[in-house]
Design brief:
The chain is of the alpha+beta class. The chain is about 20% helix and about 20% strand. It is built from three helices and six strands. A hairpin with a 5-residue loop joins strand 5 and strand 6. The longest helix is centred in the last third of the chain and has 13 residues. It starts with a strand and ends with a strand.
Length: about 140
């Protein structure tokens, strides 16, 4: 189902033709722009610098990691769970690992974006994923290769 949603963000109103709804605050997300990317809804394996494999947010199971996550309490999301797992274990953020992208997860993403010199919009995408540390399947901590 295709949804067209008009979002006014104080600049210009933007009509987005997308495959899923977009949170209004994420429409002008800067570096992690959601306009051309699908929402992360699953996980995919990604090698990290320790040689281990980290399971990271992806558009579909073992699919593209070029996707986004933003504040959304609509339901459990496996991609959000894996993001939270690494925010807590690898980045030291004191957040619940529950699969719901709430205010605590958004704040943790903003802190990680600030730490690595990214646009601080609270939207997770490939720029944030490539900058942050991840927990590997063997418990090691590393960055994407």
């Amino acid at each position: 189902m295709t949804i067209i949603r008009k979002i006014g963000m104080g600049l210009a109103s933007v009509a987005l033709l997308i495959g899923t709804t977009v949170p209004a605050h994420a429409a002008t997300a800067g570096v992690e722009s959601v306009t051309a990317r699908p929402r992360c809804a699953a996980t995919a394996p990604k090698k990290i610098t320790t040689g281990a494999t980290a399971w990271v947010p992806a558009a579909k199971t073992r699919g593209s990691i070029d996707c986004w996550l933003a504040y959304d309490l609509a339901g459990y999301n496996a991609a959000t769970y894996r993001l939270q797992e690494s925010l807590k274990a690898a980045e030291g953020k004191a957040i619940a690992v529950d699969g719901y992208f709430g205010q605590a997860t958004k704040t943790a993403v903003i802190q990680v974006q600030a730490r690595y010199g990214l646009v601080q919009d609270g939207v997770y995408g490939p720029s944030t994923g490539g900058a942050m540390k991840w927990r590997g399947s063997n418990g090691s901590i590393g960055k994407w290769l």
